[in-house]
Amino acid sequence: MNVFLRAATPLDAGATGDILWRSLRQVASDELSSAAEAIGCCDVMIARNWMTVAVNAAGVRAFLARDGQEICALYTAAEARGRGIGRQLMQEAKRNVSRLHLKTPAANTGARRFYAREGFVPVDPVGVVPWDETPDAARTYVWQKEIAA
Asked: Which helix (DSSP H) or strand (DSSP E) does residue 50 occupy?
């Protein structure tokens, strides 16, 4: 799927909020209580200049929000998944940094596989062995740019 990446604008809050809301509903998350709250959350990330969107003729297909070295959110519309859009967004996020980190629910095995393919490695939380694998538990992943020898 051909998309182009650009910085999100306030007009993208509705589309990104819809992607966020639908994604969270698919995994039965109670993180946000309404679609309006999801739109508001996206509006805040856009206002802070954290968000990049992937767009095609159909509109916003995915977004990534990054605050410095932290990936705060990466969501793709259900009908656009598996087409390399998340990878494009992640490559753009990696472009000018040497390190990134993020958290994802332990139960989100698809996201965990995606981050592993993108070079992220899980970081064992200090003093927690084995990791808590309850659905609500979050795992931290880190990506470090390789340094040429």
From this structure: none
Across the chain, which has 149 residues, the per-10-residue mean pLDDT values are 94 96 77 84 97 96 97 95 95 94 87 93 65 65 78
**Within a 10 A sphere around the Cβ of 51, how many other Cβ atoms?**
24
| CA–CA separation, 31 and 105 (whole Å) | 12
Q: Residue 6, Cβ neighbours under 10 Å: how many?
A: 13
Which ranges of the chain would DSSP assign to H, the alpha helix?
13-26, 35-47, 85-94, 109-117
Nearest to 90 by CA among 62, 110, 109, 57: 62
Query: Which amino acid is present at 44?
Result: V
User: Which residues, other chains included, contact 45 with Cβ-Cβ below 8 Å and sequence gap of 6+?
Assistant: 8, 16, 51, 65, 72, 73
Backbone region of residue 49 per phi and psi (left: phi > 0; alpha: psi in -120 to 50; beta: other values): left
**Which of 60, 45, 68, 42 minimizes the C-alpha distance to 1?**
60
